[in-house]
Structures are given as structure tokens and as C-alpha cells.
Amino acid sequence: MPQNRNMNTSSPEQPVRSDDPLDRLPLRERKKLKTRRAIQHHALRLFERQGYDDTTVEQIAAAAEISPSTFFRYFPTKEDVIVSDEYDPVMVDLFRRQPAELPPIEALRRVFGELLPEMFVSDRELVMTRLRLTADVPSVRARMFEAMRSGTQGVLKELIAERTGRRPDDLDADALAWAVTGVLMSAMYAWMDGVVDFEAMAGLVDHNLTFLAAGCPL
User: Fold this and answer.
1) Is 4 within the bounds of a domain?
2) What does the record give under GO molecular function (predicted)?
């Protein structure tokens, strides 16, 4: 996941609004993400056609008309082309736009309430393919856990600490960030296990965040 955690949302490069949430990002970021998406598109197409294990980085690079070294500039491993996405910077931007008086979980409910439905509509097949491969390929599933720890969870921790006036390494902010990460993973596994359908995942994330904010009463 792109680690642009210090994104300056006051940049004079104002993105154009559209149905694609990535269009909220500055032009430079959008250009980089366009290249990432192109590589990921070719990789997932090859994985679906000939299998993950039988697809090499060299084949992906050839399909995307780039060199293998360029592939590794965007994705450190072959697994990363599946588990990585572009939504952390969008989440950061949306979170920082929320009213300052909102507590972190309520702000995140609004963020995910806007971002997830858009993502599931605009990138439905992409997201479903990535989730299927994560469920089916053990090495991808293992990499996904590590990417969540070094990517989304870290971003959430910094945002929570920032909103609550705590230090970036605050342990309470870290614990809450892990709890929110668990909410996201719970919804993902509910879909993988057939408990909910794809369209219900955004609602399940909101339900779980509400449950978390209430102190997980059982």
C-alpha cells in the first residue's frame, strides 16, 4: 500500500472530483497510481488465466510493457501486486476532512461509509479478484497480514493519534488501530467464508465499528 502518510491536502494541485475516489488525489499521485493500476491489471489477468504460481514477474512486466526492475519499484514482491491498493492516501484525505469534534471511530465510520461503497462499485471485479486470490494462495494471505501491519494499521494509528492529540507511538492509539484493522479483516473473512455477500461488506464494516464504539457489548 502506498505509504504517503504525510500527504499535504492543501496542495495547489487540486484533484478533479468524479465517481473515482482516487481522483481526489493530487495529479502527481494519480499518475503514479495509474501506472500501479496498469501493472496490477495485467498481473491479475494473468493470475486468473494461468494461475498464480505459474505466472512470473517477467511475464507480468512483459504484459505491462515495463522492465522487471520497474515492477519491483512499484511492488516489492509478487504477492504485493495482489495485496497492495491505492486507498490509504484516500482514507487519509477523507479522515482529515471530518469535523474535528468527531471521535476517531465516528470519523472512520463516515470515511468508510463513503469510501467502501464507491470502491466496491468502481473496482468491484478488481476487489473480488484480489480477495479470491488472498483466500486461495497461502503466500498471498501471509503477505496480506504483514501488509496490513505495515500499511493500513500504521496509517490508522497515526490518524487516531493525530486526532486525539497523542504521540504517534501512543499504545492506546495503536490498540484502537488494531481493533479497527480487525473490523476490516472480519468483514473480509465473512465474505470469504460465504457469511455475507460482497455487497453487504460495507454495511458489515459499519456495524462492526458501531459495535466497537459501544464497547463490544455482548
Assistant:
1) no
2) DNA-binding transcription factor activity; transcription cis-regulatory region binding
Domain of 34, in residue numbers: 21-213
The domain that holds 54 is classified in CATH as 1.10.357.10
Digit-coded pLDDT (tens) for 168-214: 899 999 999 999 999 998 998 898 888 988 888 899 999 999 999 99
Nearest to 180 by CA among 216, 127, 144, 146: 216
| 112 in a structural domain | yes
One-character DSSP codes across 18-48: -SSGGGGS-HHHHHHHHHHHHHHHHHHHHHH
Do residues 64 and 74 lie in contact, with contact meaning Cβ atoms separated by under 8 Å? no
Residue 188 corresponds to which cell in the numbers above?
A: 473480509
What domain count does the chain have? 1
Distance of alpha carbon 59 from alpha carbon 44, whole angstroms: 12
At 143, the amino acid letter reads R
Q: At what angle do helices 124-136 and 138-150 cross, to 10 degrees?
A: 110
Q: Which of 21-35, 126-140, 150-164, 194-208 has the lowest mean pLDDT?
A: 21-35
Percent of the chain residues topping a pLDDT of 90: 54
Q: Given a cut of 70, is residue 60 above it in pLDDT? A: yes
Of 46, 43, 171, 163, nearest to 94 by C-alpha is 163
Residue 3 lies in a domain: no
Surface-to-core class of residue 178, CB atoms within 10 Å of its CB (0-12 exposed, 13-18 middle, 19+ buried): middle
* pLDDT tens digits for range 88-141: 888 999 999 999 999 999 999 999 999 888 887 777 888 888 888 988 899 998
